Amino acid sequence: WHTAYWACAHQYSSVYDYCRFGIAVCRQYSSAYPSVSLSTPLPGIPKPVFASVDGHEKYETKITTLENGLKVASRNKFGQFCTVGILVNSGSRHEAKYPSGIAHFLEKLSFSSTAQFESKDEILLTLEKHGGICDCQTSRDTTMYAVSAEVKGLDTVVNLLSDAVLQPRLLDEEIEMTRMAVRFELEDLNMRPDPEPLLTEMIHAAAYRGNTVGLPRFCPPENVEKIDRKLLHKYLQSYYCPQRMVLAGVGIEHEQLVQCARKYLLNVKPVWSTSTPANVDKSVAQYTGGIVKMVKDMSDVSLGPTPIPELTHIMIGLESCSFLEDDFIPFAVLNMMMGGGGSFSAGGPGKGMFTRLYLNVLNRHHWMYNATSYHHSYEDSGLLCIHASADPRQVREMVEIITREFIQMAGTAGESLDCALDICSTELSFGLESPAFQVTTLGV
């Protein structure tokens, strides 16, 4: 009966297509080679020439040190655009002898008015002529000023970078605007539903209490008014020196970048004078361990009529290694192998659906909202963390589950190791009535 039904349905469909689209749609096309495989060349067809990549081709990183101690590093790649940046060995971890928040201020003040450019708008217009964009990012140990633009505009790019880093005006109105921007960012940090930035701050504060990478990356509210031009110049004089800088470029010839560095960065006198750097903090990270807790009321920050669910977020971390040690790569693979994400994350290769935290945690415990692994590595230490979220009534069970995952890291890797290695190689070539959430971080 089923066979007869589908035969009649097929005939009806063919008649319908003929009536609607004409005879062409129902014509039975035949091939002169009905059994030829798609991988077999057809006779009379020219042999195709496919593009190939030389597996032995390697892009060499070249490094040159100038007379003043500035390092110039580059890697040439084919393309119309290049990216050039000045990286400074300076960040929130170096603020032990200064009020915390200076690096945060400098990030917001970047690419403002300089000795050559009257305003940030003039800088952006200059970059626009070369299809360029600029950005500044600060971390706990590095500050990066970067510009991406056409290769032919390299001279302008390096000139602009030199001026932005060494010749900022730091006008009073710019500093006041920065205070407003910092206050807004701190307010947004405390109100955003995503707790990850706040958790990262707290896990570092718990693991390295009061030293180096445990110092706050964001400016504390009580320090916003303390930071002025004089304090900024004093900090810049200590850390913004050629010996602590690297001019790095991708997509350009090395000799061309060195030539621009000699022209714009070799004998340039900074606006804060060229005296010998003093008060440079050379402290080594001291892992202490600890716990930091915070209770926040989120009842008035919902973006719509649906309140934010009441959740408890925890982050548990263990000391790992620095990026200079041989164990850095194994830790990176381990972090990929743990993976994880939110309970509503999309699947697919490279998105973590087959990582340990998905298979062992999210797939087995429906009440877990999130389970994600993070690895933070620095010059002298590192942190391997797992962030988890669940209903406050199940905090104890959530902590036990995450602790068990840490213990199981010492076991066999299994199939998840292959997935982690594939992802790493790809990257080298990436109660509801009262809406509140609790944040707990532990550096064990």
Automatic annotation (TrEMBL):
Positions of the Peptidase M16 N-terminal domain: 71-220
GO cellular component: mitochondrial matrix
Pfam families xrefs: Peptidase_M16, Peptidase_M16_C
Parts of the chain that traverse the membrane: none
Organism phylogeny: Eukaryota, Metazoa, Chordata, Craniata, Vertebrata
Any one GO BP annotation for this protein: protein processing involved in protein targeting to mitochondrion
Organism: Sinocyclocheilus rhinocerous
Name listed for the protein in its UniProt record: Mitochondrial-processing peptidase subunit alpha
Gene3D superfamilies reported for this sequence: Metalloenzyme, LuxS/M16 peptidase-like
GO molecular function: metal ion binding; metalloendopeptidase activity
Domain spans labelled Peptidase M16 C-terminal: 226-410
Role this protein plays: Substrate recognition and binding subunit of the essential mitochondrial processing protease (MPP), which cleaves the mitochondrial sequence off newly imported precursors proteins.
Alphabetical keyword list: Mitochondrion, Transit peptide
